[in-house]
Write a structure and sequence with these properties.
single chain, mainly alpha, Helix Hairpins, 60% helix, endosome, ESCRT_assembly_dom, Mod_r
């Protein structure tokens, strides 16, 4: 019995219908609130642009590179083409001559000038900044010297002020609160002593005093006691803090 592939496929049951796929994939599931701590960070979405940073300086550096002419094999300055071997040997053994040939625009290769040209604006900027810093240094030195002079002058004035204050306190020492309080206390005691002496002298006198002498004695005693009372009252007020002055 022969095998016919067409009969086998025709007699078999029809194949199941596969689901159709669309070109647009379904939307992704929503992200959870807690980000995963495993794995590297995800790349930014395709709609966002990459921001330049300091790490991208190499790209800018390559774009800013000047165009330098290549040095041809066997190139020599025109002034050295007709030199002898001894002269060339002398030039090779003298670094100063080599430096002069490289720095002279008429003998140097154009690539040297092309490579140095971008540095000229930076050199000019550095020279300008150097000049500015020198000016600021001179101004700062002048201000420092002026400030030092003012400081010395202020110190001298402060010393004179302290001397004047000391002289004033010495001159007014007898009028200080402490001195006034001591004088008030001494004057009260002195007046009490004068009153006692006046009374004792009157009692020690012998004989009969006239009416005029009695009146004079009474007047003097009243005035003395009045003065003593006022001084005691002033001292009491001072001790109680009821008047201004030393406490």
């Amino acid at each position: 019995m022969s095998y016919n592939p067409s009969n086998a496929y025709s007699s078999a049951s029809p194949a199941p219908r596969l689901p159709s796929y669309h070109s647009t994939p379904p939307p992704p599931p929503p992200k959870t609130s807690t980000p995963s701590s495993r794995g590297p960070p995800l790349p930014p979405p395709p709609g966002q642009q990459h921001q330049s940073s300091e790490l991208d300086g190499g790209q800018n550096y390559h774009t800013q590179q000047p165009r330098i002419s290549p040095i041809e094999p066997g190139w020599l300055p025109d002034t050295l083409r007709d030199k002898s071997t001894s002269d060339l040997h002398h030039i090779l053994s003298t670094p100063s001559l080599q430096s002069a040939l490289l720095t002279n625009p008429s003998t140097a290769h154009p690539s040297i000038q092309q490579s140095v040209a971008p540095l000229q604006p930076l050199i000019n900027t550095n020279l300008h900044l150097t000049s500015t810093l020198l000016d600021l240094e001179r101004q700062l030195s002048h201000l420092r010297q002026h400030t030092q002079t003012r400081l010395l002058s202020l110190r001298a004035l402060e010393q004179n002020h302290r001397t004047k204050i000391s002289e004033t306190e010495t001159a007014l020492q007898e009028f200080s609160p402490m001195a006034l309080y001591q004088r008030l206390s001494a004057s009260g005691q002195e007046q009490e002593a004068l009153n006692r002496g006046l009374e004792e002298s009157w009692l020690e006198e012998e004989g009969v005093a006239s009416e005029r002498e009695v009146g004079e004695f009474v007047r003097r005693v009243k005035e003395g006691r009045k003065v003593a009372f006022l001084r005691r009252e002033r001292k009491g007020r001072w001790d109680e803090g009821r008047v201004g002055g030393w406490r």
